Amino acid sequence: MKLSLIYFLAFSGFVCSQTLNSTGGFITAQAGSFIYVNGTVSNNASGILAVNGNGSATSAELYVTQDVVNNATINADGYIRLLGNWFDNAVFNSATGTVFFEGGNQFLGGSSPTLFYNVTLDGTGIKTQQVDKFANGVLDLKSLHLNTDVYGFYSLNPSVAAVVRTTGFVSSANGGFLSRTTNTVSAYLYPVGSTANTSANIPGTGTFRYRPVEITPVNNQTTQYSVRMANLDASNEAPVGYDRTIAEPTICSSNPLFYHQIDRVTGTTDASIRVFYDQAADGSWLNMARWNQTTPMWENMAGTSNLASAPLSSVAATNWTDFNDIPYILTKVGVAPPFINTPLGGGCSPQYISLSTTPMSGVSYAWEVNGVNIGSGETLNTSFTNEGCYDVTLTASDGNCTVSTSMVDLICVEQTPDASFVASPSSIDFSEATVSFINQSSGAVTYEWDFGNSTSSSTENPTVSYTDVDGNLVVMLVASTLNGCTDTAYQVIPYNNIPIYYVPNSFTPDADQHNPLWKPVFTSGFDPYNYDLYIFNRWGEIIWESHDASVGWDGTFGMNGTKCQDGVYTYVIGFKAINDDKKYELNGHITLVR
Questions:
Q1: Residue 299: pLDDT band by 50, 70, 90 thresholds?
Q2: Is residue 282 assigned to a domain?
Q3: In this structure, how many other beta carbons lie within 10 angstroms of the beta carbon of residue 574?
Q4: Cα distance from N-terminal residue to C-terminal residue, the chain
Q5: Are residues 451 and 410 in the same domain?
């Protein structure tokens, strides 16, 4: 049966039709009647569709298998059971009635923000809003998903039981929310969740999370609060994220999985806010922060408390007063980022550095250099040997929070040069000598020499002429980098002072005073205190000896000074060099002529 162009009909029994199309008439379903429309209900022009009742089981019922399209007026104090979509473009009045959404995926659309009395979700699928919707009675989610999209669903009934569920939940895209009216100091549940991980909240595209909120007003004044659970990292919220890395120093970590948008829509009543989370899936959270749009940054909410429970734990902020900004997130608040007291610096290798921080009670500290752990403690003494700049990270932990501070290029080390040289020749045998110095230093650009004789030079490879040398020379080379890192090399150039001597091979010990004595002549390098001289005759007998280099042989022998005959005699001379322990022995022949 098809009903159309109806001006007045009243039904009191069971009526079945294929479609119900009003073009301006008045259609009434009396209490106790049941109208089954196996198609679409279309109410147009000035038509009035009345489904009478008082909200009880005796109320009239309108059962529609397809859509309800209202372009006029629907008065529904009875029941409307709908398998299709709801498109309200005009007037809907309901003082006691209930609209049951019993189909699969259904839209709550139209151009009019319908003011329902009761709304019950049933059937299967997702119920998606296409415009703001209101309920004066009860929103019963049962086990279904209400997606408000970018719109609001307003529960205007201030009863705590105005929103009920078994496992159902309300999800919203960025801009959408569930709003509830309050007028009592009781915990109002906002059963929010999502199956999407995007701002657009496309159902089924992400991880399902049911993370409700409870709001408890501090007084009985009528107030409206709204809640959205954003099932994504707050930093990634579109179009403008709430960067979790921008936070007060005491916030050491924040929940990367979801955050909530909580607003006080109307009224001035402060409230306690409790946010629920799944400790097994989300981790453990002890505190809560609110995004300050003016700063902007995440700011710690004072006075929060944690309640571990099953299946959901929670964090509560008591008597919250500031509803100027809507993002809220679960956090851990503890130790503030540590301060590294060691100033920027460095110098030449090796650098011995004391890394330190200002300690806080109950906090442990660990140090890293270029990502490698080097030790722990509020003060750590260490050294830097290799050339380069070093990043230093200090991590502080109080058991709940771990937070780090890094300083890039805190210590920069320049490799100390290696000073080295050789001398040619490596020793001096005479008081005058020329020595060339071959510079073998590395890592240096300037050089300063001290040649050990009160002269100096900055030449890389100098040559020095020494005069009046009377002892060993100590030569010093200071090799420097552009930034003033230095290394010093020393080298001793020995002055050998080798013995120089002359041994005559004859003498004439006669009375003419010419060449009367024979003795060796030493000019340098000779130790006069280590001297022995022996004269032998042809038969190997010692005929004369002396241990004083200043005493010469006069050609006699014996105690009486008997003159020796002309002839050839043998001498043996033993002495030691003055600069070392080297011993010399000279032997040869002397010709004595009278």
A1: very high
A2: no
A3: 15
A4: 175
A5: no
Tell me if 517 is assigned to some domain.
yes
Over residues 503-524, the pLDDT tens digits come to 999 999 987 778 899 999 987 7
Q: Are strands 86-88 and 68-70 parallel, antiparallel or unpaired?
A: parallel
Contact by Cβ (8 Å): 274, 259 = no
Q: Which amino acid is at 290?
A: R
Q: Could you tell me the two tokens for 194?
A: 């999502």
Angle, vertex CA 233, rays to CA 167 and CA 244, nearest 5: 135
Pairing of strands 48-51, 26-29: parallel
Q: Concatenate the DSSP letters of all residues of 368-395 into one string.
A: EETTEEEEESSEEEEEE-SSEEEEEEEE
Q: What's the pLDDT tens digit per position in 143-153? A: 999 999 999 99
Distance of alpha carbon 249 from alpha carbon 243, whole angstroms:
14
d(CA 382, CA 98): 76
Radius of gyration of the chain (CA): 54
C-alpha span between 514 and 122 (Å, rounded):
149
| CATH code of residue 452 | 2.60.40.10
Name the DSSP class of 159.
S
Distance CA 215, CA 211 (A): 13
Q: Exposed, middle or buried, 268 (CB in 10 Å: 0-12/13-18/19+)?
A: exposed
Q: Do 470 and 504 belong to one domain?
A: no
pLDDT of residue 580: 72
Q: Tens digit of pLDDT for each residue in 102-144?
A: 999 999 999 999 999 999 999 999 999 999 999 999 999 999 9
pTM: 0.66
Domain check: are 364 and 404 in the same one?
A: yes
3-state helix, strand, coil in the chain (%, to 5): 0, 50, 45
Residue 365 in any domain: the answer is yes
Calpha distance 524→172 (Å, rounded): 109
- The answer to whether position 408 is within a domain reads yes
Instruction: With CA atoms as reference, report the closest residue to 460 among 483, 435, 441.
Output: 441
Domain count, the chain: 3
CATH number for the domain harbouring residue 518? 2.60.40.1220
Q: Which of 467, 493, 519 lies at the terminal end of a domain, its last residue?
A: 493
Domain membership of residue 463 as a residue range: 421-493
7: pLDDT strictly greater than 50: no
- Mean pLDDT score across all residues of the chain: 93
CB 178 within 8 A of CB 170: yes
- Diameter of the chain measured on Cα atoms: 181
Beta strand 188-190 pairing with 456-457: unpaired
Same domain, 410 and 426: no
